[in-house]
Amino acid sequence: MKRIVSIQDISCFGKCSLTVALPIISAMGIEACPVPTAVLSTHTGGFTGYTYRDLTNDIPSIADHWKSLDLKFDAVATGYLGSFEQIKIVSDFFDKFKTDDNLIIVDPVMGDKGHFYAGFTEDFALEMKKLCSKADVIVPNLTEAAQLLDEDYIDSGYDEKYIKNLLIRLSNLGSKIVVLTGVSFDDNSQGVMSYNRETGEFSSYFNENIPGYFHSTGDIFSSTLCGALVKGFDMGKAVRIAVDFTVDCIKHTLGSEKEHWYAVKFEECIPDLIEMIK
């Protein structure tokens, strides 16, 4: 059985990060191996008064124990990392478990809609660049692309030439493949463009643009993409599966946003995902 390590926080309520990654990876027939960086009572997107327990100091011990067991993994994927120390520890984790045959996938979670998430700064983006340099695949959104490249965020009015230039410069940070999310050239469609630095190939895939802001969709996309790549799908097919599943999750939530403002109802779409990967 294939195995994926997912390194990110776990929110006990709110459906994001590990609470999204673990069921999606498992549903794809892959063993999910969590490394929680923190435990929160809820996610931070709209909730107040949430509890937070930092687990940074536990990560090296987990890694050392796994190494003593000679465990092997088909991919190591990261999501939200909350501190400079966690980036350094995760970088060491990569060194311990990287092989010629597995994938390192970094989702450089730092911001959205042109702004850093609370607690993140330009200095954090500099450290995230170093982590991205060790990845085989990075999955930034347009905001994070601008943060990694230390330039102004452009939310609309760009063309394909601009996106291709972004992708090339992001790949120069060191990763083999860049998958850029949230790309839209018109009001009706939104999707992904990717670039393979080794082959020089660009690819893209778009689906329906659904207005609104939906929590957890980035985590859903990156987890599904990681699972599809580990299942052996090529990048083009993996991106299509991840985009279509994310859109499916959003559509299943439309009409019930009042009750599910904290995350999309991805659980209802798991049977669709299983069909997609058959």
What is the topological layout?
Layout: E1 3-11, H1 18-27, E2 31-40, E3 52-54, H2 59-68, E4 75-78, H3 84-97, E5 103-106, E6 111-112, E7 115-116, H4 122-132, E8 137-138, H5 142-149, H6 160-171, E9 177-183, E10 189-196, E11 201-208, H7 217-230, H8 235-253, H9 270-276
EC number: 2.7.1.35
Organism: Hominilimicola fabiformis
Keywords: ATP-binding, Kinase, Nucleotide-binding, Transferase
Number of strands: 11
Distance between the termini: 16 Å
Largest sheet: 9 strands, mixed
**Rg for CA atoms:** 17 Å
By CATH, the superfamily comes out as Ribokinase
Query: H/E element string?
Result: EHEEHEHEEEHEHHEEEHHH
Provide the CATH top-level class. Answer: Alpha Beta
Q: How much helicity do the residues have?
A: 25-40%
Instruction: Please report which band the strand proportion falls in: under 5%, 5-15%, 15-25%, 25-35%, 35-45% or over 45%.
Output: 15-25%
Overall, the morphology is globular
Number of helices: 9
How many domains is the backbone divided into?
A: 1
Strand order of the largest sheet: 3-2-1-4-5-8-9-10-11
Oligomer: single chain
Protein name: pyridoxal kinase
EC number: 2.7.1.35
Keywords: ATP-binding, Kinase, Nucleotide-binding, Transferase
Pfam families: Phos_pyr_kin (PF08543)
